[in-house]
Automatic annotation (TrEMBL):
It catalyses: an N-acyl-L-alpha-aminoacyl-tRNA + H2O = an N-acyl-L-amino acid + a tRNA + H(+). It comes from the Bacteria. It is an enzyme of class 3 (hydrolase). TRNA binds at residues 15, 64, 66, 112. Pfam families: Pept_tRNA_hydro. It comes from Pseudopedobacter beijingensis. The keyword Transferase does not apply. This is Peptidyl-tRNA hydrolase. Transmembrane segments: none annotated. The record marks 91 as: Stabilizes the basic form of H active site to accept a proton. One of its GO terms (molecular function) is peptidyl-tRNA hydrolase activity.
Length: 191
């Protein structure tokens, strides 16, 4: 069984640690924990590892956030991965920092990466792991906010939240989205 895990973000050192790149941060840590390295490939950095008989492919699109669907569609075709085995990792302004939620489908909710994926697939029936980044920004400053780093009081909790995200990815690949939702969606970090 093949799974495709798509960490959303923007390539380049200037974006490395910002909120919008949490998808990249999660797949980077997962690759590190599994002892695998990313290599440059078509439309994305790619690596893979095995977990409980599943072949898990990780990609970091090199198309920039607003064209994420191009990379996702290419890799789904290339690997012949059905949409039910795809999980997109994304920052979410509607969820408070400290919460990570998984859901089987949903709207793009104004997120340009998800909008392009929806456009590329022609539907929104794909699972996504939504990493809460809160919405602590003044009106009209959303772009600056998501392209900035996590606050000093958030940084100590990032490793725990990234590890929880990794546990959720592995759970998605072994027991599916519904049971993973039940197991993880109500967990919070104690701040």
């Amino acid at each position: 069984m093949k799974y495709l895990i798509v960490g959303l973000g923007n390539i380049g050192p200037e974006y490395a640690d910002n909120r919008h790149n949490i998808g990249f941060m999660i797949v980077d840590e997962l690759a590190k924990q599994e002892g695998v390295k990313f290599s440059m490939s078509r439309h994305a950095y790619h690596t893979e590892f095995s977990h409980r008989g599943r072949n898990i492919h990780l990609i970091k699109p090199t198309t920039f956030m607003n064209l994420s669907g191009k990379a996702l569609a290419h890799w789904m075709r290339e690997l012949k991965v059905p949409v039910e085995n795809v999980l997109v990792l994304v920052d979410d302004l509607a969820i408070p920092f400290g919460s990570v939620k998984i859901k089987p489908k949903g709207s793009a909710a104004g997120h340009n990466g998800l909008k392009h994926i929806e456009q590329s697939l022609g539907h929104n029936n794909y699972a996504r792991l939504r990493f809460g980044v809160s919405d602590n920004f003044p009106k009209g400053r959303q772009v600056d906010y998501v392209l900035s780093g996590f606050d000093g009081d958030e940084l100590p909790y990032l490793p725990e939240l990234i590890d929880r995200s990794i546990a959720m990815i592995k759970s998605f690949c072994t027991i599916g989205v519904e049971l993973t939702m039940t197991k993880f969606n109500n967990l919070k970090v104690d701040q």
